Amino acid sequence: MTTSTRGTAKIPAVLVLEDGRIFRGRAYGAVGETFGEAVFSTGMTGYQETLTDPSYHRQVVVMTAPHVGNTGVNDEDPESARIWVAGYVVRDPARIPSNWRSRRSLDEELAKQGVVGISGIDTRALTRHLRERGAMRVGIFSGHSLPDEGTMLAEVRQAPEMTGADLSVEVATKETYVVPAIGPDGGAVPIGAAKFTVAAIDLGIKGMTPHRMAERGIEVHVLPATATAEDVYAVNPDGVFFSNGPGDPSTADHPVAVMREVLSRKTPLFGICFGNQILGRALGFGTYKLKYGHRGINQPVQDRTTGKVEVTAHNHGFAVDAPLDRATDTPYGRVEVSHVCLNDDVVEGLQLLDQPAFSVQYHPEAAAGPHDAAYLFDRFVSLMEGQRA
User: Fold this and answer.
1) Is 273 a known active-site residue?
2) DSSP letters of 100-124?
3) How far is CA 143 from CA 3, 12, 86, 329, in A?
4) Burial, 233: exposed, middle or buried (Cβ in 10 Å; 0-12, 13-18, 19+)?
């Protein structure tokens, strides 16, 4: 339960971790209480894209950058129709936003959308705690009259865990929609006249992702997470895309079944983030929960097919368990790990060697984030061109 309140800077707030660690600060955004999984993001910029990324559903995001909100909130950068984070934690919020595109302050937007936050705490200490102990459940409580510490801790420990959570249907579109291809003149190409058609399974897709494909002459049909293989092929796709999204990939049996049908038909396939984990499961690999995950826009990844190192945007708490030192035989041909995180050797990409399918664990759409991985959309186009030829 939350209530939007202006002028919350003097209202006390408390952050309670499930292991009993407590941080005290001031209310930021809406006043009330919220629960989720405590995770930290290392991005220095792009907080608006982070907040509106559906992959953050049911997560309380701790910003490691100390000063947040200085560019305010605009109407151009959201990646979806709403803020998805369960809660927001910052150290030093901007008192006055300063940017020519700003329409309102970040705390006003959080309050408007009912997002409970906390400011004025030592986010460095909190981040170090999460790195040492791992991501865990958390609660933020704000207001002039708060429960006692024991009551708050008990409520946090009753909140659902991220392990075993099936969340993609909660954030995905309910109805299919089409993002038209963009022509050389910058205008929309008439439906049905694009160079390629892609069926994109929405597991928590960001708005910039189909836009990046549209920029390359692709007409994108965005389908609900519940779409069947028949729904996918009803649009006569040249390629199939599986998006990012929240939750535990071990629960995603339906998307895995759909992907296996796509692999059986050898349709060009591209997956990112949750889509990478879905491909891993479809090929027979397991998935596991990372201790504290990768979140931010500054994660180093090596493309092992080229040797190039990229700075990439991440948001994942689970990973694929696949061998790094050899190719693996699967029912759909050989597969190898194509990308790896240079911080911890986590699998960051998979590539089939005998048919046109690949995936990466990070975000190549650069919203927010670097443009190092934009070539992956071109690689997808090349697969569809090769299949057509």
Assistant:
1) yes
2) TT--B-HHHHHHHTT-EEEESS-HH
3) 10, 6, 17, 57
4) middle
Contact between 120 and 23 (Cβ < 8 Å) = no
Q: Quick one: which H or E segment has residue 169?
A: helix 168-171
Residue tagged 């170090």 (tokens): 128
Three-state DSSP class for 383? Answer: helix
Burial class (CB in 10 A: 0-12, 13-18, 19+), 163: middle
CA distance 211 to 314: 19
**Residue 40 exposure: Cα atoms within 13 Å on the Cβ side:** 24
> Rounded to two decimals, what is the model's pTM?
0.95
Q: What is the pLDDT along the chain (389 residues), one digit of tens a residue?
A: 444 444 567 899 999 999 999 999 999 999 999 999 999 999 888 999 999 999 999 999 999 999 999 999 999 999 999 999 999 999 999 999 999 999 999 999 999 999 999 999 999 999 999 999 999 999 999 999 999 999 999 999 999 999 999 999 999 999 999 999 999 999 999 999 999 999 999 999 999 999 999 999 999 999 999 999 999 999 999 999 999 999 999 999 999 999 999 999 999 999 999 999 999 999 999 999 999 999 999 999 999 999 999 999 999 999 999 999 999 999 999 999 999 999 999 999 999 999 999 999 999 998 888 899 999 999 999 999 999 88
The reply to whether 161 belongs to the active site is no
Residue 257 Ramachandran class (φ > 0 left, ψ -120 to 50 alpha, else beta): alpha
The catalytic residue among 273, 316, 336, 348 is 273
Angle at 151 between CA 41 and CA 127, to 5 degrees: 20
Please indicate whether residue 365 is annotated as part of the active site: yes
